[in-house]
Amino acid sequence: DPSLVEVNSFSPSVPISPSSMTNQYQFEDGPELRDLFIVVDDPESHITAIETFITYRVATKTTRGEFDSSEYEVRRRYQDFLWLKSKLEEAHPTLIIPPLPEKFIMKGMVERFSDEFIETRRKALHKFLNRIADHPTLTFNEDFKIFLTAQAWELSSHKKQGPGLLSRMGQTVRAVASSVRGAVKNRPEMFTEMNNYMETFSQKINLLNKIAHRIYKEERDYFNEMKEYGPIHTLWSASEEDIADSLKGIASCIDRCCKATEKQMAGLSEHLLPILQEYVLYSEILMGVLKRRDQIQVELDSKVDALANKRTEKDLFSEEIGKLEDKVERANNALKADWDRWKQNMQWDIRSTFTNVAENNLRYYEECLATWESFLASQTVDLHVDEDSEDRP
To answer: Coiled coil where (predicted)?
Structure first.
């Protein structure tokens, strides 16, 4: 997805205007084909008597006619992103809404409000908004426009106009529970295949996510041991005059390999782990979307059954059935289009991520191998020099 190609050229301490910020990002399909640019950057910490939270600047540049201005700059906190996601789900129940980073992303690996945590979340929020901006339907959602343009007090006022969070949660729970209870009699084969696909996908992506976290933990343990292992050889060299140079050489090799390992860990935490976690969340989202589609189907099936058992009010039931048939068709068409789009993006993301991991692994092992080969070659030369000097009379 070209819109997600990000260049890490922002400095949190240096404000950037929306007009100049678009020059900091590169788009493979060219800016002339895009009419909405969004950047999330410049995190700020806020401490009150009640809570501590982070806000992010959301800078937008657009050429769309429905916007009153071509440039906007607002500050949003995490709960504002949550509100946007819930409004999108409410307005488009059978579209695939991109996932948000979890409340505590990579829990146990980074501390909340640490620089690493904030930067990881910033990137995820940036991706979330750009995935919406690239979506053919979600990008024109009115709540999305308000999120990008309204000042804090305006957004707060707009939030109060809709149903509360608990009300929305209750609706979601009831819909899911109803879909579980009701048997879908006339589900099209395509959506049965989607359900089967997602069950398998969910199992595999969760397993990959667990393995990736285990690999990261092993890399971190190895890195911590190497940090202690190198200095030992340096201390040892002080008491072994005859092999001091060799011991210092080993310490130097360990130090270089330690730095390479640290770089390798950074690649895993910045590229592999976030993508796998994102698609773990996507698997949950897709299962929810399929259940909501089934719920619409169940409503239609129940009305058809009721009509078959009723001898009166047939005209009223026929009208309701007609509306439900249109609703099911719209839901099916929306989900089918989104499904194809999601699978294409997913396959591209997974393929490029694992290709990147493989290339980083090759560079890492080649760098470590070259380090030790160079050291061994130097020891071989020194050994030959010593042997020649001993052979001389």
So the answer is: 307-334
Buried b / exposed e over 98-113, threshold 16 CB at 10 Å, is bbbbeeebbeebbeee
Distances in Å between the alpha carbon of 313 and those of 5, 283, 310?
Answer: 58, 42, 7
Q: What is the pTM of this model?
A: 0.78
Locate 377 and state its tokens.
């070659």
* Residues facing 77 on adjacent strands: 55
**Coil/strand/helix, residue 46:** strand
95 secondary structure, DSSP code: S
Q: Into which CATH architecture does domain 186-392 fall? A: Up-down Bundle (1.20)
Residue 58 and residue 38 in contact, taking contact as beta carbons nearer than 8 Å: yes
pLDDT tens profile 298-340: 888 887 777 776 655 666 667 777 888 888 899 999 999 999 9
C-alpha 183/C-alpha 299 separation (Å) is 10
C-alpha 371/C-alpha 257 separation (Å) is 8
Strands 36-47 and 52-62: antiparallel
Same CATH fold assignment for domains 33-152 and 186-392:
no
CA dist 137 and 267 (Å) reads 34
What are the structure tokens assigned to 258, written together?
């330690």
Q: List, in order, residues 6 or more apart from 54 with CB less than 8 Å away.
A: 43, 44, 45, 46, 77, 78, 113, 118, 121
Give the architecture-level CATH label for domain 33-152.
Answer: 2-Layer Sandwich (3.30)
Q: How many CA atoms lie within 13 A of 40 on its CB side?
A: 25
Nearest Cα to Cα of residue 219 among 361, 117, 97: 361
- What distances in angstroms separate CA 146 from CA 85, 88, 100, 160, one per listed residue? 13, 12, 18, 13
Beta strands in 201-342 (DSSP E): none
| Domain ranges for the chain | 33-152, 186-392
pLDDT tens digits along 247-306: 999 999 999 999 999 999 999 988 899 999 999 999 999 999 999 999 988 888 887 777
User: What does the alpha-carbon distance between residue 137 and residue 62 come to, in Å, rounded to a whole number?
Assistant: 17
Tokens linked to 176 = 């899911």
Rounded to whole angstroms, the Cα distance separating 228 from 224 reads 7
Residue 100 near residue 74 (C-beta atoms within 8 A): no
